[in-house]
Amino acid sequence: MEATVQNLILGFSTAFAPGNIFYALIGCLIGTMVGVLPGVGPLAGISMLLPTTFGLDATSAIILLAGIYYGAMYGGSTTSILMRIPGEAASVITCIDGYAMSQKGRAGPALAIAAIGSYIAGTLSVVGLMFLAPPLAKFALGFGPPEYFSLLLCGLIVLSYMTGGSIVKNFTMIVLGLLFGMVGIDQMSGYFRFSYGLVALGDGIGIVPVAVGLFGISEILATAGQSKKREVIKPHLRDLLPSRQELKDSLKPIGRGTLLGFLIGIIPGSAHIISTFVSYAMERKLSKHPERFGKGAIEGVAGPESANNAASTGALVPMLALGVPTGPIPAVLLAALMVHGINPGPLFIKEQPVVFWGLIASMYVGNMVLLLLNLPMVGLFVNFLRVPYRILYPTILMFCIVGVYAVNSSVVDVGIMSVMGVIGYLLRKCDFEIAPIVLGVVLAPIIEFSFRQALAMSNGAYLIFIQRPISAVFLGVALVMIFLGIKPLIWKKKDWRERLSEAEKST
Amino acid sequence: MTIDRLSGAVLVLLGLFVVWERRVLPLGNHSQPGPGYFPLLLAILLIILGTLLVLRGGLSSSFRSLSWSEAPHAIAILGCSVFATLFMERIGYRISFLIIMGFLFGVMERLRLWQALTLTLGFSFGTFYLFDTLLRVPLPRGGWGF
């Protein structure tokens, strides 16, 4: 405990450096804009802006990028409540009761509760991150190649189960991502694989062109040409105060959403999206008046908005403690750390205390900044929606190209981004989830390396993966997930995943 | 042909392609897996999953039911992206984006001339100044140093 307090003091001294406060503020501002604008999700936003951090030290860079991440979670709720347009996927569920409240003239309190809930959830889950990540990293120091392989395999299978939609399609996307990750020089033998004489492919396919192509370019390919005009509602500051009853009704949903979101956030998958659906379902079930849900129940805003913010912090636990990202956004944050010469993993917290504790402290500061920023400036942020899409999409394209080019000063990366854009566009059309591809690309080198090392250790005996207890536990969990995933295919019953994707489509 | 069956068939073909391309990489053995070992495992997995999609995909929507109304815009955007890949380093960032943004704002979106000109010039030179000059992220200058 004493060590934690001392580390936190170190973190705050880092976070309160004027430069870092400035980057947290800028990150939160950009993140809120990214969250408000439909078509620019946090993943594309972070990837596009990664090059802007090259001139910064690692601590400032990760503070800025993390600010964009949780800022986008805040910003996404604004358009959901005011216009029934989810700025990003985690805000889909907020559209239901948030927009219903707007129609009743209660947009202000809905926005205020979303911001307060996000603040409380964000702050409390940072406490969870602070206490959970260091012991988890200590535990992981005992992992050898078999444990790492089983952990990553388990993570990928859990991700394909938790992502929703068809589990066969999700598995396919993971395998596709892993195959993309095979391109480049083999770490163990030095062989060039699938590089077709292109020297630039020697380092493999980078995470940034893949993420920007799949999430940025494919989005504008799919949506350009739309000419819908949006009616922009601007709430006034004086209308923002929630009533005493609304505050009372929101308190428990915020608490439950925080706990639920943080725990779901640690599990691989689209945690920040799933947590909102689970929180909404739970609040409706626990409510004495479930009939109010869908007609403007404040609990339907408070719970999910707290859950998605807590989940985004929870997702950082395995990334920082184990070096294992649980979703595409932590994967890009991981890549960002690596660009700055830091290798996340069990030794990260011990070797880079300034970066880790600086990030933790900056998240406390950032959450406060967002609360103070979002409510008074909501009218300003909403103005971004007035920008017509025909002006917005060329701008997004330009930032995608600059962002991807600047990482390695390579036009080959821009070409990879274009190819990934087309692949993402076609896969979306065919109802495939694209997030597992990004994770597959990031994890491919680590998973292959651990697999081959484990086999070398055991002289080719696959039994090593079940003879070591921790590895066996991970494989056991993976098997349970596979069973749960194929159960509805055998019994031909709808499971929660199918109901979730149906709900997402109908919203 | 349904969407799932078509996509499953494409994935099977991709898996077969990887199996074929892998033949130049040594497989090694179980105790010392070579650089071709893991890609082969993945390709086999992809073929199995693709086959499953083909077999179970009879009930999904028909491929013909997909709407392609955004295709003209998508092709134009993709063309711009390919143009940047091929020419950005040869003719420089600013000229490349004068052409790309001019095309998208002026030709595709038919903005008024002054709007298209202002946005094209502003974005091309503005982002160059922001990234290259202020943030010191080097952007290509092309043969004429522009």
What's the quick description here?
The complex is a heterodimer of chains A (507) and B (146). Chain A contains 23 helices and two strands.
Q: Which labels suit this protein?
A:
heterodimer; A: 507 residues; mainly alpha; two-stranded antiparallel sheet; globular; B: 146 residues; 5 helices
Q: How would you sum up the global shape of chain A?
A: globular
Q: Counting H and I runs of at least 4 residues, what is the number of helices of chain A? A: 23
Strand content of chain A: under 5%
**Which protein chains make the most extensive interface, counting residues with beta carbons within 8 Å of the other chain's beta carbons?**
A-B, 64 and 65 residues
Mean pLDDT of chain A: 82
Number of domains of chain B: 2
Total helical elements of chain B: 5
Oligomer: heterodimer
> Can you give the helix content of chain A as a percent range?
over 70%
Beta-strand level of the residues of chain B, as a percent range? under 5%
Please count the beta strands of chain B (DSSP E, at least 2 residues each): 0
Q: pLDDT under 50 segments of chain A (min length 5)?
A: none
> What is the N-to-C order of secondary-structure elements of chain B (H for helix, E for strand)?
HHHHH
Low-confidence blocks of residues of chain B: none
The major sheet of chain A is characterized as: 2 strands, antiparallel
Rg measurement of chain B, Å: 23 Å
Supply the number of structural domains of chain A: 1
How would you characterize the largest beta sheet of chain B? none
Describe the structure.
The complex is a heterodimer of chains A (507) and B (146). Chain A has 507 residues and is mainly alpha-helical. Chain A has one domain. Chain A is built from 23 helices and two strands. Chain A has a two-stranded antiparallel ribbon. Chain A starts with a helix and ends with a helix. Chain B is mainly α. Helix content of chain B is 67%, strand content 0%. Chain B has five helices and no strands. The longest helix of chain B is centred in the last third of the chain and has 22 residues, at 113-134.
